[in-house]
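check this one:
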Amino acid sequence: MLKTIKRMASMLGVKAQYDGASTKRRMAGKGNTITGPNGPIERSLPMLQARSHNAIRNNAYARKAKEAYVANLVGTGIKPQWGNDEIQQLWDRWVNECDADGVDNFYGLQALAAGAQFEAGEALGRIRYRRVSDGLAVPMQLQVIEAEHLDPAYSRAFDGRLIRMGIEFDGIGQRRAYHLWRHHPHEKLTSEMNTRVAVPASNIIHMYRRTRPGQLRGVPELTSVIVRLYEIDEMQDATLARQKLANLFGAFVKRKTDHEPEDDGPFFGTQVSMPGEGGEEMDELTPGGIHYLEDDEDVTFSDPPDIGANYNEWLRTELLAVAAGAGITYEQLTGDLKGVNYSSIRAGLLEFRRRAEALQAHLLVHQWCRRIAAQWLDVAVTSGALSIPDYWQRRASYLAIDWIAPKWAWVDPLKEVTADLMEVRAGFKPRSEAAGERGWSLDQLDAEIQKGNASADKHKLVLDSDPRITAKNGSLQAALEALVAATEEEENS
């Protein structure tokens, strides 16, 4: 039957309904291998990570892409608003002592994890429980470790257990443990004493970006442009070498072998090579040199193709692709603001910030911050650092945290503040949302305003910024109110 169908299709000239599925010459060899979400990662992840690390170490554009990614996703830190003063105060104490390495605070670890996720495709955080006697606000710390601790080649199936790419799963597909190298596998000092340790999944925060259902590990954000980055380096090296070679072209003098050059005195500024009179044979070019050739000698140079004046446009096109692959704007990648105006850069930033907000919500908050905060609050209650009698009955409500990211800074802040003011006054935006965009909870903001007003009243200050005294147009609010009150009193009398 199948042969009959093929024969009939051939007779009728039937071809693939989708050009993208064609196997003809135009599409031959292009993406013909069908894979699952994990096979290519399992084979390629170590090399991708190594090349990404190298690019960020040595390529200025790769380094700038990482810095722009971290600065926009994390900034000064994505901070929780707990809705409970006692919990908030304890958290604010703990953030400065949470790092197991004793270097960063909690928001510094956020930036470290976001950078690791960009560079290696994923970041690992290990919860470290401490003794109450250690004197921490809450006996728990966080250790951020590189993804290389989780070996993608370590896959096993035994005793009803499945270990895939270093992650152990139970019978229903839930993560049970992470098999981590005790020390970084590429540090020579500890390689001989290195062993794998099965760490319970509840103690590991695994942050990575999934692009396919079922994907177990992440890949570096530069994966799709890593070849371009290396080719840009090679092209710039070749262009520089070509320019250096051009600088060597001075002058070539051909003379008869039986002709002795006249001695016209010293020749300043140039090293002259004189074959036949103790001079060395010409085996290299020197900048600005005058080189003498015998009558039977000639110099021939290669003429490689040259993109010449098109180099700048070629580089810009390549960097546009790099920026797109890294998920940032061209201006952020290069700092090149030529031809940019307020409208164009704002349009580009809006698109980028939509992506950044999605990553903040789905990656940093959901996978990283939320897990850590839940573990922290559990430890705070069980260790006695917090006394909340109904905690286990109302745990979900206590963990209903607002995570506030730093507000985006705009090119023209006056327009943005005016727009916020109009939205709040029109009722299109709650005041709490406007405060949250600036890194405040509404309660904190109002408390600070009240504190400032009390201080101004104490020192008998009349500030133009105080809406209780001065109206928006600059008139004295109190004077107007007094005038209105006097008018009403006169009318009543």
In short: The first helix runs from residue 2 to 12. Residues 266-280 have pLDDT under 50 and may be disordered. Residues 79 and 341 are 33 Å apart (CA to CA). The longest strand covers residues 122-129.
